[in-house]
Amino acid sequence: MQKRKIRNDDEWLGIITKCRTSGMSDKSWCTSNGIVPSTFYYAVKRLQKKACTIPEHTPIQMQPAQEVVPIDFCQLDTLSVGNKADDDCSTATAIRINCRSLSLEITNLASRSVIHETISSLLSLC
After folding, report:
1. Where are the beta strands (DSSP E) in the chain?
2. Nearest alpha carbon to residue 25 among 63, 61, 64, 59
């Protein structure tokens, strides 16, 4: 049979303070430190009756778990440059990009800024 350890008020006040500032629940802390929770709460009540200042339970603010969102980066299936020997170079397809169900054609009439913005948009999507 195990002999019960008798603690004085100062020891209990130290134990309660450690528990309440640990961020753990009272029960979890007591269990992990070998203290019977009912004995712990009895000591809390007894010290409160003696007008001792007992710290309130202050749980540590845990950061919410961040949600993991998978991002599927598509591979460019084809990138081809049109033939410059076409009869009508102004309307001929200069660039064709196929990516899964997306098909994009850029003609020779497209300005540099349109081409740049289009490719930048594609890169952000893929």
Report:
1. 78-81, 93-99, 102-107
2. 59
Whether residues 101 and 52 share a domain: the answer is no
In the chain, the number of structural domains is 2
**What is the side-by-side order of every strand in the sheet holding 102-107?**
78-81, 93-99, 102-107
Shared-domain flag, residues 1 and 28: yes
Any residues with CB less than 8 A from the CB of 113 and at least 6 apart, and which? none
DSSP-derived secondary structure letter, 107: E
Instruction: Please tell me whether residues 55 and 76 are part of one structural domain.
Output: no
Same domain, yes or no, for 54 and 4?
yes
Residue 37 structural domain: 1-59
Q: Which residue has the tokens 């591979």?
A: 75
Spatial separation of the C-alpha atoms in residues 119 and 126, rounded to whole Å = 10
Between CA 47 and CA 45 the distance in angstroms is: 5
| pTM for the model | 0.43
pLDDT per residue over 39-87, tens digit each? Answer: 999 998 888 888 777 777 666 655 566 666 665 544 444 444 445 444 5
